[in-house]
Amino acid sequence: NTDSNDISVISSKHGKELTRIPVGGSPRGSMALHKSLPYGYVCNCAGNTISKIDLINNKEHSKITVGLA
């Protein structure tokens, strides 16, 4: 949800939005998942960050700064 700076949590069973998780500026693309950890990662294009998402509690765990120093 680029304009609202959050990501939607969608029920795979019902195809409906369950909640939204606030993240950094202009989140884009698909979420990267790790098969054995309860985290997902999403790129925030406007903030040069990647949000680490806690998939158990549906909240942002932390931000990772990326790009040139």
CATH class: Mainly Beta
Q: Which architecture does the CATH hierarchy give at level 2?
A: Beta Barrel
- Principal-axes shape call: globular
Give the radius of gyration.
Answer: 12 Å
Strand segment count: 6
β-strand amount: over 45%
The sequence of SSEs as H and E is EEEEEE
Mean pLDDT level: 91
| N-to-C span | 27 Å
Helix content: under 10%
> What's the domain count?
1
* Sheet with the most strands, sense and barrel status: 4 strands, antiparallel
Strand order of the largest sheet: 3-4-5-6
Q: Count of helical segments? A: 0
* CATH topology (fold) name: Thrombin, subunit H
Residue ranges: pLDDT <50 for 5 or more in a row? none
Structural class: mainly beta
Structure notes:
InterPro entries: Haem_d1_sf, WD40/YVTN_repeat-like_dom_sf. The chain has 69 residues and is mostly beta strands. The protein has a single domain, classed as Beta Barrel (Thrombin, subunit H). It is built from no helices and six strands. It has strands at 6-10, 17-22, 27-33, 39-44, 49-54, 59-65. A four-stranded antiparallel β-sheet has the order 3-4-5-6, with no helix packed on it. The chain has a two-stranded antiparallel ribbon with strand order 1-2. β4 (39-44) and β5 form a beta hairpin. It is globular and about 40 Å long. 14% of the residues are buried. The mean pLDDT is 91.
